[in-house]
Specification:
11 strands
Length: 124
């Protein structure tokens, strides 16, 4: 069965960096676009970034553009999110998600599988 397992979260000070990883199994990882989203009690689900199946195109929300970088290692079935210059408002549970096609979906509602999520806390 499809499994997505996030790691790399934790507590970091403002201005710091973290790298999230998402190890995928149960499907041909290289054939699908992948995404990162986050969720907070106050803001709900926020889409962050997409990467297509060939790593030729990446997309970012305005809130993280220039600070976060999405990438993938198809040989190791792993999706990454490098997060730099973290801010307190980045505090959330972060999820990786599988898209149903080679190209990113229009909405996070269309993702067909999600990881369990990992907490990122940004605080001094």
């Amino acid at each position: 069965q499809v499994q997505l397992a996030e790691s790399g979260g934790g507590l970091v000070q403002p201005g710091g960096s973290l790298r999230l990883s998402c190890v995928a199994s149960g499907f041909p990882f290289s054939l699908y676009a992948m995404s990162w989203v986050r969720q907070t009690p106050g803001k709900g689900v926020e889409w962050l970034s997409d990467i297509d199946s060939r790593s030729t195109k990446t997309y970012y929300a305005d809130s993280v553009k220039g600070r976060f970088t999405i990438s993938r290692d198809d040989a190791n079935n792993t999706l990454y999110l490098q997060m730099n210059n973290l801010k307190p408002e980045d505090t959330a549970i972060y999820y990786c998600a599988k898209n149903p096609n080679v190209f990113p979906s229009r909405s996070w509602h269309d993702y067909d599988y999600w990881g369990h999520g990992i907490l990122v806390s940004v605080s001094s």
